[in-house]
Amino acid sequence: MPGARTSAHPIFTVQPREPLDERRVEHLSALAAEVRRLNEATVHTALPEEELTELTAQVRALTDRLDAARRAFPPVSGDGYTTPGEGMLQQIASPVTGELNPIAPPCRIEFLEDGSVRTEFTLNFLYEGPPGLAHGGVSAMVLDQLLGLAANNNGTPGLTASLELRYRRPTPLGQRLTAEARIDRIEGRKAYAVGRILNAEGKVTIEATAMFVMPMLG
Amino acid sequence: MPGARTSAHPIFTVQPREPLDERRVEHLSALAAEVRRLNEATVHTALPEEELTELTAQVRALTDRLDAARRAFPPVSGDGYTTPGEGMLQQIASPVTGELNPIAPPCRIEFLEDGSVRTEFTLNFLYEGPPGLAHGGVSAMVLDQLLGLAANNNGTPGLTASLELRYRRPTPLGQRLTAEARIDRIEGRKAYAVGRILNAEGKVTIEATAMFVMPMLG
């Protein structure tokens, strides 16, 4: 298949994905943004049961229409997967950063000149753990992605081999959070990254370290 | 407010939540199940742009109808929050286990007699990290929840203080996964839990340890 590359390492068999042009990405992003709002409305609604039944049927009908033309894999931006490093940046349907993925907050990433990465984001009640607070696992998910992107931005992309999180104070919902990550050191095929989440007052809520192993491409 | 309890520890201020009866939970679960399918259809659709624009407007209209009667916080089952331990089990809108939360897989938990907890679940492309594989952060989220439930099931519920993950082999999408967790030991107010995810062949893909600190309730 043209453009498809496979590697000796079975986990990095690169599947061909349909790359989208900008216009199509915009349309799908607009749809995903509305579905994201629908997700939130679903956990907050207090509508009477008769109306819920009616709306449930309407959602089903919408899904059936979208599925009438269905691709096997989520699309990517750019040229499709070529290398794992480029692939990560092209994942417009990522559960953390993907504008096209309705379950992503989504976290928009800034790639800084010093090689570090940064994102500002807000979590709503879809991401709740303890009452009024972010789910510890949701924060872990954001940090895993961000530390992975730091490794990527450093030119040393890899798969997560270990991830360690220290929860210092609660991470609130509904307020602007900042997450940042950078590469600490490289040892052979291992990239060590560090990162953290800060609350709106700039206080650290969670610290993270991760080790990524760079794949050997065939 | 009747049933509301607050604690000296500000993070465990227990917010009053509206408890739902079983019938209402069923209706909201049915809605969430359809919205979950819509999320998946959104990342897979190959519909032409004109249709996407039309469907986007329809999703917006549905959201506006659901939001016409909106509660400030997601609902819970049972009697509403009384203790953190009970509260965790009543979180029917949890991002991991919540039937009412469209972004949750959702993982249905079994509480075993030996005190351990277990779930069988499948992740679709909404949860993709590397091509064809589960996002490492999504797996971390599932494990954080499961280890927390093990602490809860042990009668020692708490907030995540640390979480460590070792990724042993890839965690595939689209196949039945099993996750299990149990309490390893208790030291004062600290509960140490261990857990793992297994692939369909029963091989460990990720190992996790976590420490939970039990709150002091006022």
TrEMBL record, chains A, B:
Bilayer topology term: Peripheral membrane protein
The UniProt record lists the keyword Transcription regulation: no
Location(s) in or outside the cell: Cell projection, Ruffle membrane; Cytoplasm; Membrane
InterPro entries linked: HotDog_dom_sf, THEM4/THEM5_acyl-CoA_thioest, Thioestr_dom
Pfam families: 4HBT
Primary localization: membrane
Claim: Endoplasmic reticulum is one of the keywords in the record: no
Residue stretches making up the Thioesterase domain: 132-204
PANTHER family in alphabetical order: ACYL-COENZYME A THIOESTERASE THEM4
Family: Belongs to the THEM4/THEM5 thioesterase family.
Official protein name in the record: Acyl-coenzyme A thioesterase THEM4
